[in-house]
């Protein structure tokens, strides 16, 4: 009889509880597939008293994550507490230095400390697996690290955050407010403990940093990523996008350019007919452009307890099988420093929504400022609400929305043109700018 893989789980929240359930439910299948039983022997969380709806009888309760990591009865530490620092960091470091394997879903920690931890794993012989950290159930880490080990990669991009896609979908389809949708995402267990990581784009950036490292053989560099979240997206942007044949998605994009690797996270207008536009709700999608082959797109549930547990348990199964892949696809000292392509030189089309003063010559002034920066306008729409005359405030007409779509131009040209428009005082408030990605 082969000795079981003895698993210790730190964190029994949305994901941890589902991992315990899945190992219990799939016990026989896991043994058949890995050649070895997988057994949860110890757990910990903040509160021992909390009711969790799982049977923990016969399982040791460790006093804290560090005690769990150093417990000689545990072969594999599964870290599901979250957070880029302690106790997750010390617990993982301790387990790896003791030669144990570690499985984690913690992208914040891997994006920040992944290289140091991967070095410890290399040195002490344990595995460091984090499939669940990016797009939950979608096996995108394995695809980049193993499935495409022989293929050069020029671009990896997609919808990497379930919470944001869920919010944008429900705002567009049901006309709900941002706050209502966020509350539902939290209730369903999609959002991070601090949901600002989701809505301000940092969760996507952490995932993109991990994918870029695997795709391009570079060091994980979250700080090289340009990040914008979805909190400024208003219902009128979603409506205008729909009318113009687009949908708004929060995309993470890492692309090899002549000037280095461009890495960016921002709301993006994608054509309604594109496959990425069809990805709705908590679903994620990642497209990988491999050299010499057509793009590969992986689509699946990107958040939630059961979806995430699926990837965590697959990682545990690899540990049980004795697989020890280099966490970032190659030894850490072979990963190159990231050459960052400047965002100001990003090239693409832009959606611009301005609140323009409603008097003669405003549209001409805006068009002139754009022309000065050699920006060509694909379409311009100036409208009064419901097609009526603009409302009057204190004898003056209230500002009216002007929506412009530009042909491909550079980021810095757009900034210069809009600064000039603001100096001209023909608009009120801050212009709304959304990048357009046509393919
Ligand atoms: N939810 C999701 O859809 C996904 C989550 N992830 C990642 O998985 C990880 C866990 O997420 P999730 O399950 O949603 O988070 P939860 O907030 O639901 O659960 C966190 C768990 O960790 C425990 N915990 C927190 N701090 C400590 C501590 N200091 N010491 C011991 N235990 C602690 C909590 O204990 P207690 O219950 O007692 O409070 C809780 O059981 C995170 O890294 C997250 O980014 C990844 C992919 C998807
Ligand atoms: N909060 C994350 C969880 C999955 O990583 C999301 O919504 O995508």
UniProtKB/TrEMBL annotation:
It holds the Pfam family Homoserine_dh. L-homoserine binds at residue 192. Its EC number is 1.1.1.3. The active site is at 207 (proton donor). NADPH binds at residue 107. It is an enzyme of class 1 (oxidoreductase). It comes from the Bacteria. Gene3D superfamilies: 3.30.70.260, Dihydrodipicolinate Reductase, domain 2, NAD(P)-binding Rossmann-like Domain. GO terms for biological process: methionine biosynthetic process; threonine biosynthetic process. The keyword Flavoprotein does not apply. GO terms for molecular function: homoserine dehydrogenase activity; NADP binding. Pathway: Amino-acid biosynthesis; L-threonine biosynthesis; L-threonine from L-aspartate: step 3/5; Amino-acid biosynthesis; L-methionine biosynthesis via de novo pathway; L-homoserine from L-aspartate: step 3/3. Keywords: Amino-acid biosynthesis, Methionine biosynthesis, NADP, Oxidoreductase, Threonine biosynthesis. The keyword Amino-acid biosynthesis applies. Residues 351-435 form the ACT domain. NCBIfam families: PRK06349.1 (NF004976). Belongs to the homoserine dehydrogenase family. This is Homoserine dehydrogenase. It comes from Bradyrhizobium oligotrophicum S58.
């Amino acid at each position: 009889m082969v000795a079981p893989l003895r698993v210790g789980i730190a964190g029994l929240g949305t994901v941890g509880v589902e991992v315990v359930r899945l190992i219990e439910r799939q016990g026989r299948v896991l043994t058949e597939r890995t050649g070895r039983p997988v057994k949860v022997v110890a757990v910990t969380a903040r509160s021992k008293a909390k009711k969790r709806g799982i049977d923990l009888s016969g399982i040791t309760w460790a006093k804290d994550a560090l005690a769990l990591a150093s417990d000689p009865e545990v072969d594999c530490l599964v870290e599901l507490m979250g957070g880029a620092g302690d106790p997750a960091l010390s617990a993982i470091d301790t387990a790896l230095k003791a030669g144990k394997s570690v499985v984690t879903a913690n992208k914040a920690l891997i994006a920040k400390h992944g290289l140091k931890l991967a070095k410890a794993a290399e040195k002490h012989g344990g595995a460091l697996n984090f499939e669940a950290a990016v797009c939950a159930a979608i096996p995108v880490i394995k695809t980049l690290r193993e499935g495409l080990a022989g293929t050069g990669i020029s671009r990896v991009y997609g919808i990497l955050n379930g919470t944001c896609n869920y919010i944008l979908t429900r705002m567009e389809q049901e006309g709900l407010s941002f706050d209502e949708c966020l509350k539902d995402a939290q209730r369903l267990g999609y959002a991070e403990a601090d949901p600002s990581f989701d809505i301000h784009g940092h969760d996507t950036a952490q995932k993109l940093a991990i994918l870029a490292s695997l795709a391009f053989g570079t060091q994980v560099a979250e700080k090289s990523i340009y990040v914008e979240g979805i909190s400024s997206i208003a219902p009128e942007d979603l409506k205008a996008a729909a009318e113009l044949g687009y949908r708004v998605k929060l995309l993470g994009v890492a692309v090899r350019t002549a000037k280095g690797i461009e890495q960016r996270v921002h709301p993006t207008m994608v054509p309604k007919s594109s496959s990425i536009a069809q990805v709705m709700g908590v679903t994620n999608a990642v497209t990988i452009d491999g050299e010499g082959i057509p793009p590969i797109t992986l689509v699946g549930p990107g958040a939630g307890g059961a979806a995430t547990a699926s990837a965590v348990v697959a990682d545990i199964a690899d540990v049980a099988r004795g697989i020890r892949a280099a966490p970032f696809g190659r030894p850490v000292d072979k990963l190159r420093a990231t050459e960052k392509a400047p965002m100001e030189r990003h090239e693409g089309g832009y959606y611009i929504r301005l609140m323009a003063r409603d008097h003669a010559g405003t549209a001409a002034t805006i068009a002139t400022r754009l022309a000065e920066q050699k920006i060509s306008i694909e379409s311009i729409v100036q409208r009064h609400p419901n097609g009526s005359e603009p409302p009057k405030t204190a004898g003056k007409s209230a500002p009216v929305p002007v929506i412009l779509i530009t042909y491909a131009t550079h980021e810095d040209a757009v900034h210069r043109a809009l600064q000039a428009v603001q100096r001209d005082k023909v608009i009120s408030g801050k212009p709304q700018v959304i990048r357009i990605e046509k393919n």
